[in-house]
Structure formats: structure tokens, C-alpha cells
Amino acid sequence: MCPRTSHQFEDIRKEKRHLILESALVIFAKKGYHGASISIIASEAGISKGLIYNYFKSKEDILKETLIGGFEHIFQHYRFDPQTFTPKEFVNLIELTFDLLEKDHSHWKIYFSVLMQTEVMEIIQDKLMDILFPIIEDFKAYFKKLGYEKPLEEARFFGAIIDGLSLSYITDPENFPKEYCINRLKSIYNLPL
Fold first, then answer.
1. Distance in angstroms (rounded) separating the CA atoms of residues 45 and 43
2. Helical H segments across the chain, by residue range
3. For 55-65, what is each residue's pLDDT tens digit?
4. Based on the domain organization, do 180 and 96 belong to the same domain?
């Protein structure tokens, strides 16, 4: 048997880290943040409590990485140059939002249930704003370029619409009028249908 390479060790490390984060998300959803513990997360993951501490310092670190990682995954697609951003790219962004949620619906349903916990939002709010603020600023600049009188308010309005639609879609995807909502957003923003 050949010894493992550093690449194989790195792959194993990434898999364990992912397993811990996914298990923690399930436990945070089932028990709430305060009802969860490192021991319960370890049990859900099928690993030892000590192994978790090889990857994370605390339950709070696990929570932050789980939720902030999810936001970074989705919002990496929301970074753009407001001066060159086109209506077609705006349409693609709206459609991509629903595609990302649809691609891993069960994950996002659990994710949103954890995110809605008051104590959780208090823990991640500062880091979340670090991610969201540049996106809001980009949309503000884009809406200003388009001639909106209140571009910041429009950026916040668009964000609230996307948040609400995403939550509604995750909650009841079978009955959610996805195409209608996408077309409605296109209509509101005079985007190509």
C-alpha cells in the first residue's frame, strides 16, 4: 500500500470539513443554534468530537463558516462592474438566483431555516453586511447609471424582492410561480423577455 500524497490528504481534509458543515447545518435546523452542541454535530457527522476541533475552534465558528460560505457561494455571482453591466447580464443574474436554489433545494431549505433564527442573525450580521454592502453599492451605481432618482433605495428594494422570492421559492417550490416572478422582475426593470 502506497502512502497517501499531500493532495490525497488535502482531499480528505476538504471532505471532512464539508461533512462537518453539512451536519452542523442539519443540527442547527433541528435543534436551533443554542440547542446544538459540538457533540451532537459530531454524532450527526459520524466522527469524534475531537476531530471537529481539528477543523473548527467552536460551534460559533462552524455556524459562521456554514452560513457565510452559503452567502459567498450565491453572492459571488452578484459582483459586477456597474458601468458595463448589461440588461442581459441582469436577466442572467435573476435566472441564476433561482437556478442555484433549485440545484440544491434541500440544502437551501435547511440553510434558510437556520438563517431565520434570531440568535443566528445576531452572530453573523456583521460579516453578512461585509458581503452585502459592496453588492448594494454596485446595484446603487447601476440604478444611478439608469437614471433612478433614488438608486440606493432601488438597490435595497431589488434585494428585498430577491430575498422574499427566494424564501418563497425554497418554502414551496412546487406551487411557486417561478417563471411568472422572473418575467415580472424583467418587466419591473424593463429587461429583455
1. 5
2. 6-35, 38-45, 49-55, 59-75, 87-103, 105-115, 118-145, 151-171, 178-188
3. 999 999 999 99
4. yes
